[in-house]
Amino acid sequence: MPSPSRRTVLATGTALGGGAVLAGGVPAQASAAEYGTTASPAGATDVRPSGDPWRAVLDDADLVWQRAPKTWYEGPYLGNGFLGSGIYADPAAPTKAVRFPVQHSEVQDHRPEFGSLFGLARLPIGYFTLEPVGTITALDWRLGLRDAELTGTLTTDRGTLTLRALVHTSRSVLAVEVTPSAGERGFRWVFHPAEAISPRAAFKPLPDGYTGNPPADVTTVDGTSVAVQPLLAGGQHVTAWRERTRGARRTLYVTVAHSHPRTTAKAEALRAVRGAALLPYDALALTHRAWWHAFYRKSFLSLPDARIQRFYWIQLYKTASAARRDAPVMATSGPWLEPTPWPATWWNLNVQLEYWLIHGSNHLELDAVTRALSEFRDHLTAEMAPAYRADSLGIPRTTDARLVNGGATASDQGYGVGIPGQEAPTPEVGNLVWALHNVWLSYRHTMDESILRDVLFPLLRKAVAYYLHFLQPGADGKLHLPATFSPEYGGNSRDCNYDLMLLTWGCRTLLDSAELLGIKDEAAPRWREVLARRTPYPTDANGFMIGADIPFAKSHRHYSHLLAVYPLYELTGRTPQETALIEKSLAHWVGFEGALQGYTFTGAASMSALLGKGDDALKYLGQLMSRYIQANTMYKESGPVIETPLSAAQSLHDMVCQSWGDVVRVFPAVPAAWRDLVVHDFRTQGAFLLSAVREDGATRWVRLTSEAGAPCVVRHGIAGAIDVRDGRGRALRYEDAGDGAIRIALRKGDAALITRAGDRPDLRIAPVPGDGTVARWGLPG
Known about the structure:
By secondary structure, the chain is of the alpha+beta class. The two termini are about 20 Å apart.
């Protein structure tokens, strides 16, 4: 993009498009000419120099369509964590209709006897078709990230349909306003209920005795249409819709409600859609846009690669469309349920990767993982074999929204978490510990002691206790685990690295947490013994093995055997030998083509960033983009899965800032091509907000604001002598912490600015210059 004005901001303003704000919160004066955008051909940058950096990067990142999207992987998508719609041409009549699917993250079956993938599966709801009078000949759409709204036109041989669409952020209503030309006034909306059966039925044989639910009953109640879908297990989900005409504009309002075991969803859906239909589209859009404008302002990132910068902001839009703290933990495809063999929530990688980016981007309001693990902890007890329920917790590979797996396991035992040393259910026992690492990240990025005390410590204590039932000394005097399963390699192995690495992190975290909370736990000596005596991670000439019995010897998409490197940061290259082991293991893992998938390359990028290899990290992200990411930045394997592009955003975070080990590392793995870089209010461990600017290949300044008064150690990356000053420009004392880092005493609410000695840079930020010739995401002409 062209170099924008430097009359922009460090601190946040009040609304997108508002005046620039100085670091100290003083409004800056900016001319009216600096604000606003101009339309230009799709695929080109259309943002003029702007006084508001968020508006500049968001408008530049809009997805555009000048060709009809044929699938969910190509089209625009709207959502609010619950209700979702992905929009594309109707496959049965692509020139006659456009599909607006309606799906909902709470809509599922409730027959646990058939397991999580059939009996507790998410259920499809149906779709609307927008059917013009004429034949569709062209379209011109834009998904505006800033307003979270789809706008544009459909052109037919009879006229045009101008549309605006959103899924309201709090009302959970899909609103589509259509303004037809004279020849298209007769267009219509048609609802097509889906068969309420697990989507897995199209991919795998049905369990004995399993049938789909009965068909929906479509009726009209006082001018509002409803499709009531009864469930064999009791309860219902209901789609309600109503169309209102105001002048030349016709607006469709749609909502979905789910209830079990009661049949209250119909009344709830009718109430919601009738309330929304009282408001014109503009009134709904007003509150909707205000939420989204405030959302984006919580952080800022700009880099010179226009395609990757746009991708990053799209992932923030996608995450806020798919996640809310009070919404179900994201299933494999978020709220958008398309044909898939995986209509559930996956806990051996998917969930963890889905939520990593919320921490650095400063969006803890989207953290459903911490809330769900706390709320449904009793269900985790029920997933254990009866002999271990008194003191242990675990989570199976797949669950529904309430963290229930169901009774139909491989061994038909009625519990979901396997037992180490036994074949069935599959002894994949580390998933809860890994999920709790996400909770630990939420604690570390906020320093909210209630997360540590009320959720992490009690749940992690029981997750580790399960391992301790099976950990036994061997002839070598070391502690060993019986055979467990490493996702998704195949075969069980003694001393599986997936479990040894998670157990080590778990014991270390429990000891640290007990000290912080002032708890004298009777299990603490056992945790210390594990750290002192557990067997070393199995390795061979190629690096980390799957386990003591299984070498890494075939193509494998998952980095389950490398968790100690990333994301646990238990092994970080502290010594040349450790660095060599990481490099050898990484090269061996990605060296097998055949089974690699997209998240292979996001993991490889983040591991490269750990080693400070920014060019390698960028290379892996490049392979991801060219080989796997779809036109609208979604991702597919056998079906839609959402975690990979979201974890790519975290890989970008790892290149820009790392804060493991109580040290904030600024620009630790920046590719040589990224000469300029801007980050603002990036949230780090220790609850610091980081702002920093890199100019012409060198870090110009770094600013850290402490939210919790935690110890502050920062590797700032500024060469030579430095000045450290507080928010009033006064010198701050600091100590050399070694390895290029300094230690600064910051109380809660204090800030520190680090610059070259004698330098007084302009402390306002702006999007960095980028390549405005790069095509936009979507389907530009």
